Amino acid sequence: MRLLGREELKAPREPRAFLVAIAKGLLFDYFRRAALEQAYLTELMLIPEAEQPSVEEQQIILEDLKAIDRLLGKLSSKARAAFLYNRLDGLGHAEIAERLGVSVPRVRQYLAQGIRQCYIALYGEPT
Question: Which fold has domain 74-127?
Answer without folding.
Answer: Arc Repressor Mutant, subunit A (1.10.10)
